Amino acid sequence: MTGLPRYAPMLAMAGALPDDDSRWDYEVKFDGIRAVGYAGQRLRLLSRNGKDITAAWPELADLAPAEPPYVVDGEIVTFDTGGRTSFEALQPRMHQRHPSTIRELAKSVPAVYMIFDLLHVGDRPLLGLPYRQRRELLEQLDLRGPHWQVPPRLRGSGTNVLAASEKLGLEGIICKRIDSPYLPGRRSSLWTKVKNVRDREVVIVGWRPGAGRRAGSIGSLLMAVHDETGELVYIGNVGTGFTRRSLDDLWARLQPLRRPEPAVEARIPDATWVEPELVGEVSYTEWTGDGRLRHPSWRGLRFDRSPGEVTRDPRS
User: GO MF terms on file (predicted)?
Assistant: First the structure.
């Protein structure tokens, strides 16, 4: 990363489709791990919360060396047999740091870096350029390889693009104003995410015991988010969407985090409480009137998020 400035990724706001298609381009919303890539003599990848995740993705190393050096933004994804991105398939790779295991996983669960923005080339920052111009410059770099690509911009009617994404079983789309600058570390409506399904990050604050086939394990996880004052508030429990492997992994990670009292205001007699250090992602249907998630389903841990980032967005 020598000589290249460090940039925090720009974030999209949840919202509705724009009412003026001529001012917007559309992209697929990929279901993966956000990563800013720094390609110079070597490649460095930093997650959304600034962690160096380069070692976990050796199949991307050949993006470097690069002359001139550059900084790009994108999403690391894996694909299922139907050609859709699979967040579940990423789970075993997100926290793995043992070199031999990483190499084996790179063969059995290969990743692709979907590069959608160009932030810097040589000694020139591009943040102030309009989105469309940055994209044109990115496309001129011709970054096509076995494990990286520049996905197409989707022009035309946002309604049609969103409908097509739903038909294909995709998570949704990102709407980007063609004149928008890149705003590092900021969440802006200049980038609007429109989803076919609802999902959100949650902080794990405890678990309830399982029964039947889950006896002696986790029955459900207890979830929380930060309110507008910064206080953690309980938003219910999630008991579906787990695999045996994910339950075993959660059990091992939660044991050392046990605490005698809850980190939230909640009375759940059979709960085991934990320090609010792990972030997960769930899908759900809606918020209830008493501030709970209705019909949540577990999607996986988010090692690229920190608990302090998890707030209740009223639009989510």
Answer: ATP binding; DNA ligase (ATP) activity
